[in-house]
Amino acid sequence: MSLSTAFRRSAFLLLTSLAFGAACPAYAQVTRPTTPVYPPPAPLATDTAAVDQVGSNKEFATPTVVGMGPSKGVVAHLEGLANFSVKTDLRDRDPAAKTSTTAVKNRRAFIKGYIPVWNHPHLKVILGFNYDREEFQFAAPDNSAFYRNLEDKGLKTLGTQLAVIRPIDEVHWFLGRVKGELNGDYTSSELTIPDYLKVSGEFFYGWKRSATFSWGVGLQLGYTFGRQSIYPAVIYNRTFNDRWGVEALFPARVTVRRNLSPRTLLLAGYTVDGLNYNINLREKLANGLQTLIVRETEVKGRLRLEREIYDFIWFGLEGGYRYNYSFNAFDKEGNKRSIFSLGGGTRPKIISNSLGGAPYAAVELFLVPPRKFLKKTASE
Questions:
Q1: Sorting pLDDT into bands at 50, 70 and 90, what band is 204?
Q2: Residue 1, in any domain of the structure
Q3: Where is the signal peptide (predicted)?
Q4: What's the Cα-to-Cα distance from 90 to each of 152, 328, 351, rounded to whole Å?
Q5: Which residues pair with 220 in a beta bridge?
Q6: Quick count: other Cβ atoms within 10 Å of Cβ 222?
Q7: What domain count does the chain have?
Q8: Considering only CA atoms, which of 377, 364, 374, 378 is closest in space to residue 79?
Q9: Which of 95, 158, 192, 348 lies at a C-alpha separation of 20 to 30 Å from 217?
Q10: Does a structural domain hold residue 262?
């Protein structure tokens, strides 16, 4: 091979290499892959394991927040008050008379149960039932026919309710509840539903801002303040850290929560309770009346401890002070209106009572979903 031929071949190879080298960067620039995009990770249902509600998953907003106690399935409650004074203004006669006594017994007991009829992440329907009983005893029942009629009389409440929780999106939710109760001193043989039925309900629209903060506004129809009425209400559930939180349905109740451990809760706050009984008197009043409606409204300051006994079994101990706002009796037949008429009409007040404040204590046993079930729900 001649020198010129070898030189020409070397030059050709060199130019080919340079051209290929120049083309490679351009090719790499054109075909460089973009930054890979992955689907967002599935959110963890953290508060599902805590309260059997899908809530921390932003796709399913609910009123509950992490840190709240477990959902209660069945609750048995027994409560008693210390002795308290009773001052009575009897308006069933002319002129009106005044009398007084001491209540030496005022005990209450109830059992409640809740059944999840439908437990889908986008819709929860819960059926509830309750049976309550209250009894009085007085130091001097002979001071008034009203005392004698209440003495050892079983004042009962038999009720059922339907609650619906409807998550809308990752933030918004609806909550609705309707409840019917038979309140009074009836027996099974003399029960007439229209005479004892009381209807209540509530509706809320809310926002789940995070797994630790949910709130809502709405209306309640009920007897919390004595007569049937509609009033605005606010739900405010918030967990500030792993120890402290607030659970409120204002104005009916506000509770500050202290999480002592995953199995122990300490609660403090107040509740406003309203009771409404239809009573058939065993002994007629001075004006001949033999039926009354007794309306009671009370405010309780309370301190409560809840603790797990074993997996799905918990107990509660509660104590505090009861302030009675009103405990009055009205003419059941006076200006009678339908149960669906707000306020139930303007009824004449027949007996006005003033009850003294008293400390109270209560013990409670309740069942919650087993931890194994909650973990399974969370994994799903």
A1: very high
A2: no
A3: 1-28
A4: 21, 10, 5
A5: 202, 231
A6: 20
A7: 1
A8: 364
A9: 158
A10: yes
